[in-house]
Give the backbone structure.
Amino acid sequence: MVKVSSRDILDILRRYELAGDDNVPRNIENVKITHPNPINTLASFRFNKYQLYVLFDDTAEDDVDYVLKQIKSIKSTVKGELLKNPRDEITTYAMPFKGKECYLFSVISEKKRLDSELATRYPETSRSTWQKYIKAGYVTVNGEPITASKYDVADIDQIAINVPVTADFSKNELPIIFIDDNVIVINKPAGILSHAKGVISEEFTVADFFRRYSIYNSDTNRPGIIHRLDRDTSGVMIGARNKETAEMLQKQFADRKVKKTYFAVLDGVPKLDKARIDLPIGRNPSAPSTFRVDSKGKVAVTKYEVIASDDKHSLVKLQPQTGRTHQLRVHMKYINTPIRGDKVYGKIADRLYLHAFSLEITIPNGNRTTFTAPVPDYFTNQFPGTKL
């Protein structure tokens, strides 16, 4: 067996006229020594972005098929070419080195998309998850952060992954209203996100809780999620425990066959005790994370009814007929009675006074079911005698 150092490899590369005097041993990277059989030594390494192999074998006798067989015994899929000895007219490939004969093989690497290569190397993680990790900046290629999933890489490229360690939310609980083999229904507290905004959960979310019970979208940051409630909204939220249930529930939401009832405390009192607001909603171009009533927006319909009121506030029942983002908050703002505590469309208070009281939906057992979450007492405390 032959002892091989980076200096030895560099000397061989100079003999093959691939390296010059300006190269140094540290230019030889990722050296790995193997022994295809007891009589030879194979060194794989990286030089100037190329992957190469040097085989030390006195029995090869310039036999190309034999040399390739030794290299492919280590990696059967390797492709490339055996380089000719530029110093010897008698032998074609063999290069004398310290009393031994060596052969130099240059790998030809096929280019692949970065996300595809990662999914191949680590099949336990889905390609879609790798795409999110790449976009988040958690993957480097040859030391450089890459944020494009379609970036081309080769076998020789050094791919490093630095995904932050996620927090342990295994002890965090949420109140379960109902659970069976297909659905889970919770009473979401105010202040809890429905799901993480990015790849990594930096705080406990409903999705983290659903992950314990659901196999639907389990490789994403939205396991079990069918619909959302805003962070500051409390109340009924349903999740799917499998793909078939998810498709069934999603279709009902899309077809507007889900009946939802909310209760809210408003700043002010609507002019009408009961009304149907039919005003389209679109994204606000001057503040893209918010929405507004917009004639070019999407259809949005809300029914409301005043349950109780005083000089400053009113307690209302809200029944959205559509499911636009921020729909209830935008509609209440439009009639000059924003929901109390709405820091985006109204004034700050101790919380957003919006609660998802009930959700009526058909679940896989075929029964039309209404799930409810009691309205917090502080919604009604300022309206004596009011019961919901």
About this structure: Residues 170-254 form a domain with the Pseudouridine synthase fold (CATH 3.30.2350.10). The longest strand covers residues 259-267.
